[in-house]
Design a protein that fits this description.
alpha/beta, Aspartate Aminotransferase, domain 1, Aspartate Aminotransferase, domain 2, 7-stranded mixed beta sheet, 12 helices, 16 strands, 16% strand, globular
Length: 450
């Protein structure tokens, strides 16, 4: 499953590739045995949303409340949430809820006025970054953050070309969709974008990824677009979770800088302690990005995102274009994000991700010894992937079966990867070993029952 390093299409095998939103999606056109109340709610949603409605599972879930690592359905059933990384410190976290309630009852306004909470949060956030990454701009979403990062890189380099991985997903603005091949399988990439294979083994992962990048850079230069930067999610989540060996990104970052480009680390998925090694996913690779982007988990469900970069890059961008985000870093969002950061730091959730994630990965690897369908279990901290295969080939049908079988066992999970055959495990950071046991035992039972 390798395509040329300077691939100009979002997928060399579009029939096999899975659009990210189509993974485990409910298909309203297929006959189903939905309960009358659920069927009525689905119909109501479709009347309003039309083709933009995307639901999970063969039988969509009607959730009414949540707490910690649990979601509750309308009929009272509770589900262990192994999918949602947005409530990073747990659903309805008391500290976050209290901070939001207090702030929304006090002040919520745009950022052209002075108010303490956004300054306090900015200072606390920047303190988690390596020296030199000392300026932040707040947004409302990861999509906005990545859009802004692309603009910063273009302003800094005077070039338009970007390199991403073949199944990358970085958001849904026009500019960011251009650098998100997983959103447009089989379609030609934008002329200024090149997609390279994700860094999976075996062999010299670091050297191969750097060589593919260098070939893509050369193609961008030859085409006249030039090279502005490398944009990667440092856990390669949409590609199917690529974490090891730690440090493999370093040669690619060196190649990026030799070519005059910027390294943009998309930390929406791996950031805020999820990989268990440090606060940020890029730190596992002993590299320092030029620009870092953040989003979803930052506010535990309250919309906030951010871009952290060096002063010189921010100055160059600000000199070339005015930038203002009405709700980016508003008082309520900042209060939520500050509470999230406090929870991560004070409850030792980075260490918890390392401990529980390591324990769970070991159990999943052991499970693979008993079930041949498991090609590999991999990942870091509380971002893990379980790849399913059949006769040595990707098996998305097994992943789809498992997702719905686990739903029947009251566990929620999703899929990722080029073929949609990788279980994506990214629970709230408060996940415990007992919860990991529930998942592994349910997965064991589901595979044994197939």
């Amino acid at each position: 499953m390798t395509t040329p390093a300077n691939s100009r299409t979002a997928d060399a095998a579009p029939a096999a590739s899975r659009q990210i939103l189509a993974l485990n999606a409910f298909d309203a056109a297929r006959p189903s045995d939905l309960p009358p109340e659920t069927a009525a709610l689905v119909a109501r949603r479709q009347r309003s949303f039309g083709p933009t409605s995307v639901l999970f599972y063969d039988r969509p879930l009607h959730v009414v409340s949540a707490d910690g690592v649990w979601l509750q359905e309308a009929d009272g059933k509770r589900y262990l949430d192994v999918y949602n990384n947005v409530p990073s410190v747990g659903h309805c976290n008391p500290r976050v809820a209290a901070a939001v309630a207090k702030q929304v009852a006090t002040l919520n306004i745009h950022t052209r006025y002075l108010y303490d909470v956004v300054h306090t949060y900015a200072e606390r956030l920047l303190a988690t970054f390596p020296e030199g990454l000392d300026k932040v701009a707040f947004t409302c979403t990861g999509s906005e953050s990545n859009d802004l990062a692309l603009r910063i890189a273009t302003a800094a380099t005077g070039k338009r070309g970007f390199v991403v991985t073949e199944m990358a997903y970085h958001g849904n603005t026009t500019a960011v969709t251009d650098v998100s091949p997983s959103s447009r399988p089989g379609q030609p990439l934008a002329p200024h974008v090149r997609a390279i294979p994700a860094p999976f083994g075996p062999g010299d992962v670091a050297g191969r990824f750097a060589a593919d990048l260098e070939a893509a850079i050369a193609d961008l230069e030859a085409s006249g677009h030039g090279f502005a930067g490398l944009l990667v999610d440092t856990i390669f989540s949409s590609d199917g979770v690529a974490a090891d060996p730690a440090g493999f990104l370093a040669p690619a970052v060196e190649a990026t800088r030799r070519a005059g480009g910027l390294f943009i680390a998309d930390e929406v998925q791996p950031g805020f302690g999820r990989t268990g090694a440090a606060m940020w996913g890029f730190q596992r690779h002993s590299v320092t990005p030029d620009v870092v982007t953040m989003g979803k988990p930052m506010g535990n469900g309250i919309p906030i995102g951010g871009v952290v970069a060096r002063l010189d890059l921010m100055q160059r961008f600000a000199a070339s274009v005015g930038y203002f985000n009405t709700f980016g870093g508003n008082p309520v969002a900042s209060a939520a994000a500050l509470a999230v950061l406090q929870e991560i730091e004070e409850r030792g959730l980075v260490a918890n991700a390392a401990d529980v994630g390591g324990y769970m990965l070991a159990r999943l690897k052991a499970l693979g010894q008993r079930h041949g369908e498991i090609g590999e279990a991999r990942g870091a901290g509380l971002y893990l992937g379980v790849e399913f295969v059949a006769d040595g080939a990707p098996a998305p049908e097994i992943a789809s079966y498992v997702i719905n079988a686990l739903r029947g066992r009251r566990i929620l999970i999703g899929a990722a990867g080029r073929y949609g055959n990788v279980l994506k495990i990214r629970p709230p950071l408060i996940f415990e070993r007992a919860h990991a046991d529930m998942l592994v035992e349910a997965l064991d039972d589901a595979l044994a029952s197939r």
